[in-house]
C-alpha cells in the first residue's frame, strides 16, 4: 500500500502527509501524472477557491488522470476543496469546471445569522454506520471543519455523513472505493487518524 498525496499548491499538504505518516503509511507527494505509477491510494486535499484549485490541477496535468483514477474505482480520498472538486460546479467560481466524478453542485451557506466560514469542531451523523469508513468511530464523531461552501450531491444515496450548520449538508460521501469529506481528518485528532486508517485499509 502506497499513499500518493496530490500537491498542486492549494492544500495543507504537510499536515495531511504528517497525519498519514503518524499512522505508519508509506506516503509520497504527487505533482505529475507520471508519479502515479506504483500508487495504490490517492489523496486530493485542497484549501482556497474552487476555481483556483481546479485551474492548478489542470495546469499540472492532473485533472484528467484524477478523473480516470476515480472512474477505475481505485481508493480515492478528497478533503475539503478536494471534496468539493469531485462535483460538477461551484457557486464560488461559476465558470470553473469541477471534476464531475459525482453529479452535484457546491453552494454557499445561506445567511441565517451564523458565522461564515463554518470553522471548528462539529459532530456528524452517520447515514451508513456499517460502512467500513466508520470502523472504530463513535456513532456521532466530531471532526474539524473550515469552509464557506458545501456540496449538494444529486444522488443522496452517496451521502455517508450529515453535519448540521445553517442547514443539514453532506459532510462526507462514499461511492465504491471513493471517499470524500468536507471536514479535515488531518486536523481531527483521534477520529481523523482512525478515518485515515480505515481509508488505507481499503483494498487496492
TrEMBL record:
Chain ranges of the Glutamine amidotransferase domain: 5-200
Signal peptide stretch: none
Molecular-function annotations in GO: glutaminase activity; imidazoleglycerol-phosphate synthase activity; lyase activity
GO biological process: L-histidine biosynthetic process
EC number: 4.3.2.10, 3.5.1.2
Entry keyword set: Amino-acid biosynthesis, Cytoplasm, Glutamine amidotransferase, Histidine biosynthesis, Hydrolase, Lyase
Name of the protein: Imidazole glycerol phosphate synthase subunit HisH
The species this protein was found in: Oceaniferula flava
Gene: hisH
